[in-house]
Design goal:
This protein has 345 residues and is α/β, with parallel strands linked by helices. Helix content is 46%, strand content 11%.
Length: 345
């Protein structure tokens, strides 16, 4: 990873339990400090999937939050705000600057194997209301939020980690239901939006949403007027790798309108070689005029603008002492908020 950053610079790193990134709070803070210094002009993002429930990389002694469906049942914006504030405090304590949350998918299909209780609810207005509060509170505390997974992964019957899910709704239905929480996220000035590896046949019957200009640029960027960073979901998921090489997927995602790419590895390690292939493919595509340089410059400019919103909070950050971490991580106040949420389980 250090060699990769010396040659190409680095936007950020995403932490995973399976890659040995996460052991104890003080160890996470030390890793975050090292990652941040790998960045060039601006500190590198330290990202994580910390939603609550089954998608939570930070476990005890960190506060273990219930699934977001439980929070949704409360229909309580005050509770949502206290949850997000407490979550942000623990993330900030260990140096995490980007949380890939909240999930803005609507749980309209009970057979959905990947979203399920990760969603805040089954009604677009509820997901929009609570999702907006979570975004605002995370970002108020200095943690960039990421709404996911556009244009909606809630009504699928397969998991994009293993296959390419199909969404058959017409555009009018998407605008009336699936897009509602994403519109709220745009209004909340979310720093990031993550794309979904789903095939929306009514809009683009050839390319997954992540690689579709009609979805990423025409709908999310232009129609919904999102001005932050559009980040791909992990390009090493089978919905993509079964159909595209790392280089082809990377170029197609940038061309579609993504500003940042996630490549999170498989199994117990990240394959740096695949990441190098992706970066080199983008360079060659620009050199060969297959990918407009203006598109790459636009993506880089968006990344810089979003980082600059948060950089004052993180530029001089240093790992807290063990005593300081103990005062925040899994505190009684945070456990009390988790208990309030669990009452709606």
């Amino acid at each position: 990873m250090r060699a990769l950053t010396r040659e190409f610079d680095l936007g950020g790193v995403t932490l995973f339990n399976r890659l040995g990134n996460i052991e104890t709070p003080d160890q996470v803070a030390a890793v975050a400090f090292e990652i941040r210094r790998l960045g060039g002009e601006l500190p590198a993002w330290v990202g994580i999937d910390q939603e609550g429930g089954r998608v939570a990389r930070l476990r005890a002694p960190f506060t273990e939050w219930p699934p977001m469906a439980v929070l949704g049942r409360s229909d309580d914006t005050s509770l949502a705000a206290r949850f997000a504030k407490a979550l942000a405090q623990e993330l900030c304590a260990v140096g995490v600057s980007l949380d890939y949350a909240p999930v803005l998918d609507i749980h309209t299909n009970p057979k959905n194997p990947v979203i399920g209780d990760r969603a805040l609810g089954e009604r677009p207005e509820l997901v929009a209301k609570l999702g907006r509060v979570i975004i605002e509170e995370l970002q108020r505390a200095g943690v960039a939020a990421c709404g996911k997974h556009f244009p909606g992964h809630g009504d699928t019957v397969s998991d994009s980690h293993f296959d390419l899910p199909i969404v058959e709704h017409p555009p009018d239905r998407l605008r009336a239901v699936e897009f509602v929480p994403f519109k709220a996220a745009v209004e909340a000035n979310a720093a990031f939006m993550m794309t979904a590896h789903v095939l929306v046949t009514s809009i683009d019957d050839e390319r997954p949403a992540t690689l579709s200009k009609r979805i990423v640029t025409d709908m999310l960027r232009n129609e919904l007027r999102f001005e932050g960073v559009i980040v791909s979901d992990d390009l090493e998921m089978k919905a993509i790798t079964d159909r595209y090489s790392p280089g082809d997927a990377a170029v197609a995602a940038i061309a579609a309108g993504c500003d940042a790419l996630l490549m999170c590895g498989k199994g117990a390690r990240a394959d740096i070689e695949l990441q190098v292939q992706a970066v080199e493919a983008i360079i060659h595509a620009v050199e060969e005029e297959q990918l407009p340089l203006t598109r790459v410059e636009d993506a880089l400019a968006r990344n810089r603008r979003v980082k600059e919103r948060f950089v004052s909070r993180w530029r001089d950050w240093r790992p807290p002492s063990a005593a300081q971490l103990r005062n925040v991580i899994g505190s009684e106040a945070h456990q009390a908020v988790a208990g309030e949420m669990s009452a709606f389980a």
